[in-house]
Amino acid sequence: MKLSQIVKKCQLEKIVFSVDEEISSGYSGDLMSDVMANARANSIWITIQAHKNSIAVALIKDIKAILFTNNVSIGQEVVEKAKEEDIILLRTKKDSFTVSGEIYSMMEDKTAKD
Amino acid sequence: MKNSVSREKLTLVNELIYEIKINDAMTKKVVFFTKDATFRQIQLKLKEKKISGVPIIDHQKNILGIVSIDDVISAFDKGYVDEKVKNYMTTNVITVPKNFSIISAIHKLEKYKIGRLPVIESLNNKKLKGIITISDILNRLLIVTQSIAEKIEDKEIKNFQRSKKLIDATAQKIFKFDVRGDDFNNAGQAASITKKYFKGLGIEKDIIRRIAIICYEAEMNICLHSLGGTILVRIDQQNNAIICASDKGPGIPDVDLALTPGYTTASEKIRALGFGAGMGLPNIKNFADKLVITSSLKTGTELKAIVNLGVKK
């Protein structure tokens, strides 16, 4: 599924959005080691951890986009790092549970249609 | 095909006859006639093209019937060889849709004891698309098995080249990263660079990911829990990636306890950033093929993780 579809449907704020990537799965979590162990490649990661290490984790796991929830503030150095590494950053006022549910059902619908 | 012994051995062919579509095996250039052709015209064509039958179609290319060499012989015999075929041809034509697997063509050829099958667009659309014979099928099977064999050969060559590259790399490169204690912002560098390096060597994605995770967790451990240290990454003669992390202390009092998932000594501050969940060492253990940790409260901790690169020597 294209990221732009998710951005539009869930009304997400684009912080860094260079390429409209194809997303195949998602992972929700705020513990780095948990995401490290369990997130899949080409995914969207839903979290409240908005610091430079989140970018490092995304990079290592081939996560395409990070979606920050609860409208957390994002430091300029995080934005710069994301631009440098081509990681897409998104933000929403919604909490992780709500937005994960929304994205999950979009992906389920998509799979059902395919 | 009737021999059960040889059939058992041909498992690949047995799979392929279900996979290959008739469309990919059939002859697309078909000799055909309309119903106004005479048997004599057809007989000349059969002789010229050395074929044994032709489909008869209407102006929309829908199949109406078929005329075989037997029909031509009958026409000679009974004296209507100069008449139009429309009153005499076989109209009950056995056909097969082009998107079916070749197994259905084989079944029909065997069942009706015929040499060729006209291929149509679909079950509901009788438009003639081609013709298929047993030799078309054998031909296609040979081509497909050959390309499979070539792919296997290719892969072996690639594997060989890759391992040569690795051995060369072994001689040259040892990565060394200094990791400072408490320096969150730069942590993750060793893992990133290591990942890029192995990617360049053409190592399998999953293996790279495991190496990167190990590097990352080792790096974070030095950063979060120690006074600083180093990470060394190299490839040994057996084509294993060796990740060595050592720090200057303070050392782990009980290594087994530290390897227990969920056990942590991290501060509130560290945990608020999403670290210190007691999963770092267990992650390393899970993703490494081999892990050795030695720790002393005097000299610090040394961790050595080995990941097989999955490349033949």
CATH topology type of chain A: Udp-n-acetylmuramoylalanyl-d-glutamate--2,6- Diaminopimelate Ligase, Chain: A, domain 1
User: How would you describe the oligomerization state of the chains in this entry?
Assistant: heterodimer
CATH superfamily label of the largest domain in chain B: CBS-domain
In order across it, which strands form the biggest sheet of chain B?
7-8-9-11-10
The ordered H/E elements of chain A are HEEHEHEHEH
Structural class of the secondary elements of chain B? alpha+beta
Strand content of chain A: 15-25%
Instruction: Estimate the helix proportion of chain B, in percent.
Output: 40-55%
Largest interface: A-B, 22 and 24 residues
- Give the fraction of residues assigned to helices of chain A: 40-55%
Separation of termini of chain A?
Answer: 11 Å
The CATH topology of the largest domain in chain B is what?
A: CBS-domain
Question: Could you give the distance between the termini of chain B?
Answer: 42 Å
Provide the domain count of chain A: 1
Instruction: Please trace the helix and strand order of chain B, writing H or E for each element.
Output: HHHEHEEHEHEEHEHHEEHHHEE
Give the low-confidence spans of chain A: none
